[in-house]
Amino acid sequence: MNAAIRKLAVAAMVLMLALMANSTYLQAFRSNELNSRNDNARVRDSQFSIDRGPILIGNMPIASSKPVDDRFKYQRTYSNGPVYAPVTGYYSYIFGRAGIELNQNSELNGSDPSLAFRRIIDVISNRPQQGASVSLTLNAPAQLAAYKAMGNKKGAVVAIEPKTGKILALVTTPSYDPNQLAGHDLDKVAADWKKLGADPDKPTTNRAVRETYPPGSTFKLVTAAAALSSGKYTPETKTNSPAELPLPQTTTPLVNENRQNCGGSNTATLTIALRYSCNTAFGSVGLDIGADALREQAAKFGFGERQLPELSGVASAFPGDPNPPQTAQSAIGQFDVRATPLQMAMVAAGIANKGEVMKPYLVQNVKTANLKTVSETKPESLHQAITPEVAAQLTGMMVDVVKNGTGKKGQIDGIDVAGKTGTAQTSPERPPFAWFTAFAPANDPQIAVAVMIESANVARNDIAGGALAAPVSKAVMEAVLKR
Amino acid sequence: MSIASTSVIQIIPRTRRGVELFLLLIAVGISVGAYVNIGITAQGGVPASTGLYAAGIGLLALVAHLALRFRAPYADPVILPCAVLLNGLGVAMIHRLDLGLTSVGKTKGVPFAPQQITWTAVGVVLFVAVIIIIRDHRRLQAFTYTLGLVGLVLLVLPLVPGLGVNIHGASIWIRVAGMSFQPGEFAKVCLVIFFAGYLVVKRDVLTLAGRRFLGLDLPRARDLGPILVAWLVSLGVLVFESDLGSSLLFFGLFLFLLYVATERAGWLIIGGLLFAGGAFFAFQTIGHVHKRITDWLDPLAIEGGQIAGGMMGQAWGGILGRGLGQGQPYRTLFSNSDMIISSMAEELGLTGLIAILLVYTLIIERGLRTALGCRDIFGKLIATGLAMSFSLQVFVIVGGVTGLIPLTGLATPFMTLGGTSLVANWAIIALLLRISDQARRPQTPAAPVSDETIAMAVQKQ
User: Fold this and answer.
1) Of the candidates A282, A60, A91, which has an alpha carbon nearest to the alpha carbon of residue A181?
2) pTM, full prediction
3) Could you report the predicted ipTM of this complex, rounded to two decimals?
């Protein structure tokens, strides 16, 4: 009998070892997976109760945690909430995080591997876990100017420093106050959230980086870049620019917005065509160089890649396999061309930076609570979109647009502004999108801007679009340049 | 130390009561330490009731110790401290959960800890009673069939209309005078004694070689009767009480004892197949069992489910744990009953959980050691049965809580909130210790030699 009992003793040991092995798997190897689940209330609670690091612009906190005497210990507070909401995002106990609060979460709450050493010190000295601070590249005057200039218009503004890719301003309107969502009165938070969700203007939508729109005539910059890069065109090359351009495979012709030819000529030069934003000229240029050349040029400016992961940015797109009429439409930024305002700012910034598109970034550095730098973002080249020569030609053409063409409203006294207007229509029922993308000063670019106004209640032409969007661009540029 | 002196030590039977007392001090110390720790982290200071708690648990441990010292001096010295440690930690955790549940406004029935302490006292009284009344476990053999009947009655008691209650899908509870009991916990003890008594008589018949097949000695068809009866009863438990855990426990115990009595692995094979068939049948036909199994296959699918809550608690605890009073185990459903082991794992970490499992292992292996050393077959079988009942029960409930196997509502021995299980476990420990006293006692009646005398004897050489 003892032999059997001994075997049972071994079996009992095996059962226990199985329990230990399973628990080890669960607690040592699967813990990260389980701790990162959204429905994990423990993690949610403890993270919400952490002395979270601030989000800074320079030395000015735009989001910070202040000690309070309730269940969560710290209240996340956003100063100038609606202005910075598309960047900071929010941190809600019930609805989670967005924006920098989401994408830099591990740094802000101090759990990032790069902060491991700091965390050990905290544990040893019995201090509560303290988050790192995240410094942004934003330029506060530019951001405020952009928000103010947008007023109650619905749309987005993105400003980039062309040489580095730093985001100087990133605004979407209408906005919301993240303080509403960060509150500790959870019933009120839920009610406010419901109200925001029900708002037809979708204030929590990040129009600058998370939504794509038809870029309209601003896309003609990409078409012009492709044409100049092909070697077949110079700014003085004559184009086919009648009032109506008959398209192959269809009876619907491509028309200029004013139903006339281009600046009084049926063979306007590329410069003139850009000045008056002639659809027929760029349609024929697009047909001439082909969809592939357009797509390649767009990709070199950053189309097809997700930009600005800090804000979960989405990719802009050029249609995959358009037929000739669709190619002509695409060449003027219609059909299925979709771009984020950020992407159009990158196009302007690329031209401004001698053809080199810098990778846009928003986080300047991360520092521990005692100001030790954990990481510092270095400017990074994304693509050489065009040669410096082509960039110089395009710059000249864009300066002409603002000086003599559709973009006059973007002019700034004493500074050469290079820009391009756009008005994109999706359907006859809905108002067109008004665009303006520009950089300045033209000879030494400090800032590139894209403005998109979603429902512009104006005439459907470029001058109107420019009239609406260009002043916003001007305000942002002045905030940066005139200091 | 010379070889001679070693051999001297080996032949002098020792009571080891001093060792037990020392281990008890540690067990009580850890329990009180846990209580103080919880006070500091969750209440902001050493609780005023610390003295009372320490005195209470210390007194209970001392009473149990004295009962052994006077009535079972050769009993195993490790089992009692292990039980006291588990019980003390369990009470501390229940107290901690009282605080946690109150803090989130779930005050129904709170506080549970005083209740559990009262039941611990009842358990220790029963422990002492068993030690005093049952002077020789062999006398129990006379009650084989009586206990078998009692066990069966206890088993079916939850099915009696008006008496049994269905809690969370399983009908393994009865309600008398406003209090709930799990009669299965006592049925387990009665049935172990019944199985043992029955097998002592029938083992020769059952051992007769039947047919050899694939290297296994299979029993004769007509000897299959008892195992079929046990199978049907356990299947009955499964079908009518919807409890896979109890069913597995009863059938498993019978199988193990049958195996030990006959030393024929064939029984295990046949039994295993029968159980697998029964479990599959239950999975197909019984909604509650089916749900338990689908919950097990995808525990995280149910937001706020108890297994998901427990697993997240354990993950949150990680390797070193959140620290007593510093986790949020009260978030898990049934955090102080079914899921208490995940509460432990959350606050004490993987490290603490493994320590607790090792304490269980110690009790189990010490119990089996007792079975090895026992000189009569009846005692061997009872000790094996009781030790394996611990093993199976811990495996079924801890495995269920940690997601290794489907969860069933068995009690975590000595820890789960609830009187029946706690009291029954104290009785089981008492029985085990009674048998171990017999097993370790010198064969020729001799005066017990205390540790001190041996130490002196060793020093003299």
Assistant:
1) A91
2) 0.70
3) 0.90
